[in-house]
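Chapter review: from sequence to fold.
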Amino acid sequence: MDNNSSIEAHKKNRGKLGMVGRVPVATTEELATYYTPGVAYPCLAIKEDNSKSFDYTMRGRTAAIVTDGTRVLGLGKIGPVAGMPVMEGKALLLKKFAGVDAMPICIDEHDEDRLVGIIKSLEPTLGTINIEDIETPKCLNIVTRLRGEMHIPIFHDDSEGVATVTLAGLINSMKLSSKKLERCKIVINGTGAAGVGIARLLIHAGVENIVMVDTAGALYKGRQGNMNPIKDEIAAKTNIRMEKGDLSDVSRGADILIGASVKGAFTPDMIKSMAERPIVFALANPFPEIDYDEAKMAGAYIVATGRSDRPNQVNNLLAFPGVIRGLLESRPTRVDQKMLVDSAKVIAKFLGRDATTEKIVPNPVDKKAVRGLAAKVAAEVVKVANELGIATASKDPKEVEARTRSDVVAYAKYEKRMLK
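The token string follows.
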């Protein structure tokens, strides 16, 4: 795909999304039912009980992808208008893979307080919100605040989506390397949204020996300099041996090295200094911390990156469609870490016996994955919400899986008939 063909494809279609009606309005009776006077009845019912809006309107199946354009992909601070193609693409993927109607919301506001206020004001229209491509640490602060002030679930794909797929890849890596995740020493380079999300999820999954590294070196409790409240939180829960030094120091003897940082951060010497059968997840995009081939030549047993042209692509697409569909179905009072851990297990298990050192997670565009993975993840999110008692909508996970799969098949037929 070159620049010109991508530009022409976007120009030809004027973007990737459109709004399509779900009911016919071809007769007087249909007009009366769906507009005036019939529309007054659901309005009055919702006035008496706002929760009915999830049943009587698009709200119950609608998510928003919200950004301020301050950290879009690897492009950086390009602004909310320039970020629109990415948000539009994310919404398209939600429809294709999970049957979710999603709308991109690009907000031209960078003040944290005002941005939170704007996002909160969208609640009457939406069933859930995914925070996307907002700079760190502002994005983490915003997610925390929104979860405390809104009544719909807030998902953070840059943090929680990455973490879920990373954990799925590690689960299969453990099986292949005959290691135990909870016994591994894991070094995470990068303390942005992705790094923090991965650390939080690994802690919840039972990993104790995690060392996080930023540009000032290893994080540890009580470190002075280059700290913030989020780093303080993570430092208090990691680095149990109080290791100090730079990345090359703390990576010695590590079982797993995870990068959520920048191109070139990992060197062959670092990999050579790791424990037996080292596992390297170089997730910087579009250019990883170390090239796949270079890492393998240095002795890495398993290498994962964010690139689609290399084996083991850690792609959020494996997680976020199903998670968001599950959130819409169950409407939980919070996004619990157990939802993400169990979703990671579902993603890892999806490969079954097909897992190899060059295939530790499913291919997101494989036909089997397209038709079934998001449905299984959605069902798992609903199951966990039910078990924890945080679901505000009572749903049968098996029915959610079947309905999601049906919606995906229906969209595939629509895509084939109308869009090719």
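Two observations follow directly from the output. The domain at 17-159 is CATH 3.40.50.10380 (Rossmann fold). Residues 397-419 form the longest helix (23 residues).
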